Amino acid sequence: MADEVTVLVEEVRRRLAAVEGSLTPHRVADALRAAGRPVGDATVLAVYEALRRDVVGAGPLDPLLRLPGVTDVLVNGPGPVRIDRGNGLEETDVVLPSEDACRRLAQRLVATGGRRIDDGAPYADVRLPDGTRCHAVLAPLAQPGTAISLRIPRRGGFTLDELRVAGALSDEAHDLVGQIVMARRAFLVSGGTGTGKTTLLAAMLGAVDPAERIVIVEDAAELRPVHPQVVGLEARPANLEGAGAVVLRDLVRQALRMRPDRLVVGEVRDAAVVDLLAAMNTGHEGGSGTLHANSAADVPARVEALALTAGLGRAAAHSQFASAVDLVLHVVRDRVSGRRRLGQIAVLERDADGWVRTEPAVTFADDGTLASGPGSRRLLDLLDGRGRG
Fold first, then answer.
1. Cα gap 357→351, rounded to integer Å
2. Number of Cβ atoms within 10 Å of the Cβ of 257
3. Measured CA distances, 265 to 222, 365, 382 (Å)
4. Is the pTM value of this prediction over 0.85?
5. Rounded Cα gap, residues 127 and 223, in angstroms
6. pLDDT category, 389, cuts 50, 70, 90?
7. Residue 292 pairs with which residues in a beta bridge?
8. What secondary structure, in 3-state letters, does the chain show?
């Protein structure tokens, strides 16, 4: 039956496209009659619903976006759509039948976010009206077909207690993370894509004193801490004419004029790292952000590379980094279970030549076991308020 409906949908689509008019069950029935197809009520409604899903919202992906716990919906060209509910990728019963269907869906989603995607601009990254982040790449750049990645923000966000219940934080990790927030230490949350950096940072911000004002700067609004005093600034891409772009670096400068008690950059991915480090060196304690890195040990090199794109020399980058940031919290995703969790807390140290490196303070195993590292004493000093040095 599903294959038959697919054939009818394509045929009706061609006929409706030839004559201007809105999509209605009556027009679908007329198109079926003109094609010599059966026009029973069940057939008309099945074709109408399939076409309606294809022109409204996220189309066939809508039911997946509404499933509890779904964080990602992934299209890898024609075939089954996959989702992630926190335990790795799952194949679903939703199937995109053709490359044309994938391409149409990508174009509609991107248009909903105010952008366009076509052969002249074959990829796009937009935020949909409901807050979902959509990234799409058209074939043949993407193989085996058009690729669509949807990242769904959790409504309301997690608290630190909820992350502990979910297994993202062990009891010891929960206590340490809470102390980091209370001690107003500046930190970066590092990790790979989809490891839960934003989730952990949002939960930590939710534990900030309600009397403090948090100003958040992001490329795409994803941080949703449960906190009474949050102001969010979101970057804006250029419009179809190539004008009107507002970049992260501009927003960081604006945020500094908004009396933040804590300045947060949702994801540092470009030259804005220089502005973040400068801001965190102006007395704004407790500043934070997220950063893509494979390990806590890789964070200094990552910061250095981003700073170089802004013209900041290596020595200056390391000096700014050392004085601005106290800690790195690295999150991981377990290969077997797919569970996202805090893997390590590291402190920053400078060697005799002035280069910054991270030293593990505590490392958390898959079962929550804590192992102290060479930076553990420094971590305790920072949490006790004995400052940097």
1. 7
2. 8
3. 11, 28, 22
4. no
5. 13
6. very low
7. 191
8. CHHHHHHHHHHHHHHHHCCCCCCCHHHHHHHHHHCCCCCCHHHHHHHHHHHHHHHCCCHHHHHHHCCCCCCEEEEECCEEEEEECCCCEEEEEEEECCHHHHHHHHHHHHHHCCCCCCCCCCEEEEECCCCCEEEEECCCCCCCCCEEEEECCCCCCCCHHHHHHHCCCCHHHHHHHHHHHHCCCCEEEEECCCCCHHHHHHHHHHCCCCCCCEEEEECCCCCCCCCCCEEEEECECCCCCCCCCECHHHHHHHHHCCCCCEEEECCCCCCHHHHHHHHHCCCCCCCEEEEECCCHHHHHHHHHHHHHHCCCCHHHHHHHHHHHCCEEEEEEECCCCCCEEEEEEEEEEECCCCCEEEEEEEEECCCCCEEECCCHHHHHHHHCCCCCC
The answer to whether residues 113 and 126 touch, using CB atoms and an 8 Å cutoff, is yes
- The closest of 206, 221, 197 to 299, measured between CA atoms, is 197
180: CB partners within 8 A, 6+ apart: 187, 204, 327, 329, 345, 383
Residue 188 placed within a domain: yes
**Is residue 128 domain-shared with residue 3, that is, in the same domain?**
no
What is the biggest distance separating any 2 CA atoms in the chain, rounded to whole angstroms? 83
Q: How deeply is 281 buried, as exposed, middle or buried, from its count of CB atoms within 10 A (0-12, 13-18, 19+)?
A: middle
Q: Is the pLDDT of residue 71 over 90?
A: no
Q: Are residues 84 and 200 in the same domain?
A: no
Residue 354 lies in a domain: yes
| 119, 123, 124, 130 alpha-carbon torsion, rounded to 10° | 100
| Chain position carrying tokens 């013209």 | 311
Confidence of residue 17 (pLDDT cuts 50, 70, 90): low
- What CA–CA distance (Å, rounded) separates 38 from 7? 13
* pLDDT tens for each residue of 105-128: 999 898 877 788 999 889 998 888
- Closest among 227, 235, 282, 278 to 259, alpha carbons compared: 282
**Structural domain contains residue 227:** yes
Find the distance separating the first CA and the last CA of the chain, reported in whole Å: 71
**What's at 368, amino acid-wise?**
G
Residues 206 and 342 in one domain: yes
The number of folded domains in the chain is: 3
What single letter denotes the amino acid at residue 317? A
